[in-house]
Design brief:
It is elongated and about 130 Å long. By secondary structure, it is of the alpha+beta class. The chain has helices spanning about 1-20, 85-120, 130-160, 340-345, and strands spanning about 20-25, 30, 35, 40-50, 55, 60-65, 75, 80-85, 165, 170-175, 180-185, 190-195, 200-205, 220, 230-235, 240-245, 250-255, 270-280, 285, 290-295, 295-300, 310, 315-320, 320-325, 335.
């Protein structure tokens, strides 16, 4: 009977050792912090940018008489966003149209007179000089009509500047004006961006560019999103061909999927780029062992007396069901897998 009991305890110990977990005092299941090797990926801080972001500015002066959008609104292509007082421009356009009508009437008179002069010249009732004067009058009147038409077209185009429309479907990011403000040429009226075309831009030091190849895959970390949507794998990286003289770094761009949710321009992001070195000293623990209380992130670590002690840690990247520990624990320490059970130990 004693042999069977000892044999059963031995088998249980081998199973615990094979799974990487071990019982601690008070029956808590623990796991030893181990380092993991593999291909190393270096993080670079970046920011989310909109591929298409437009600052719409006024082209003509005037008071803002209609403002139909606010920051955060989703607009369609061609939707009216801002109207500027266009009464003076409307009157100028009407005056130009009237001048066009007058020029048309003058051209009709000049055309008929020229035709009569041609008939009289064929019958030799007038001289060559009289015919040439009629022809010159006809050509001058025709040129005046063309000039009036061009002037009226320019007035109509300018009157369209008083209505600001969305150049594409997007989201209104900022509206720095209010109803009644005076719009001036070049003054920004609002900012619009396309949420379906976003990218992450990060600065990579010049010394690390040799390990970054354009077109290779990269991982994007978005820390502000929920845990299940923080990581994205993108198949291609774009490295800009210029290096900043002040920081000695190059811009690296990674396009985000068109259907990504909860991401806006200006958000903080990290670009993880693979390098040639092997990872060493990276510590990983099961994701279930992480404790989050308000702004504190920690682990229950078994101390020298075999008791669980809550210790604050700094997390790194998440890989499947494990998370990297950047600081707070050391290699070989034991952490509790079930934080709720550890919290009940007194």
């Amino acid at each position: 009977m004693l042999k069977k009991t000892l044999f059963g305890l031995l088998i249980a110990a081998l199973v615990v050792h094979a799974s990487g977990a071990a019982p601690a005092q008070d029956g808590l299941a623990t796991v030893t912090v181990q380092s993991a090797g593999g291909a190393e990926a270096s993080p670079y801080d970046g920011v989310v940018e909109a591929v298409r972001q437009t600052v719409l500015a006024a082209q003509v002066p005037g008071a803002v008489v209609a403002l139909s959008v606010k920051a955060g609104d989703v607009v369609k292509e061609g939707q009216v966003l801002v109207r500027i007082d266009a009464r003076a421009a409307t009157q100028n356009s009407a005056a130009s149209e009237a001048q066009v009508q007058a020029a048309r009437s003058a051209l009709e008179v000049a055309t008929k007179d020229y035709q009569r002069q041609q008939q009289l010249y064929q019958k030799q009732y007038i001289s060559q000089a009289a015919l040439e004067r009629a022809e010159a009058q006809y050509r001058a009147t025709s040129a005046q009509l063309k000039a009036q038409i061009a002037q009226a077209s320019a007035a109509n185009i300018q009157s369209g500047f008083y209505t600001v429309k969305a150049p594409y479907a997007g989201v209104v990011a900022d509206v720095p004006i209010t109803l009644g403000d005076m719009a001036m040429p070049g003054r920004p009226l609002l900012t619009l961006y396309d949420p379906g075309a976003l990218r992450v831009t990060a600065a990579v030091p010049q010394t690390a560019l040799g390990r970054v190849a354009a077109g290779q895959a990269a991982k994007i970390e978005l820390p502000s999103l929920p845990a299940d949507r923080q990581w994205l794998t993108r198949p291609q990286v774009q490295v800009l061909p210029t290096i900043d003289a002040g920081t000695h770094s190059a811009q690296v761009r990674v396009d985000l999927p068109a259907d990504v949710k909860g991401v806006t321009p200006g958000m903080f992001a990290r670009v993880w780029l693979p390098s040639q070195a092997a990872a060493s000293g990276r510590l990983y623990v099961p994701s279930a062992a992480i404790v989050r209380r308000a702004e504190m992130t920690g682990l229950y670590v078994i101390d020298s007396n075999g008791r669980p002690v809550l210790r604050q840690v700094r997390l790194g990247r998440v890989e499947n069901d494990r998370v990297e520990i950047l600081s707070g624990v050391a290699h070989g320490e034991r952490v509790v897998i079930d934080p709720q059970a550890a919290a009940r130990v007194r």
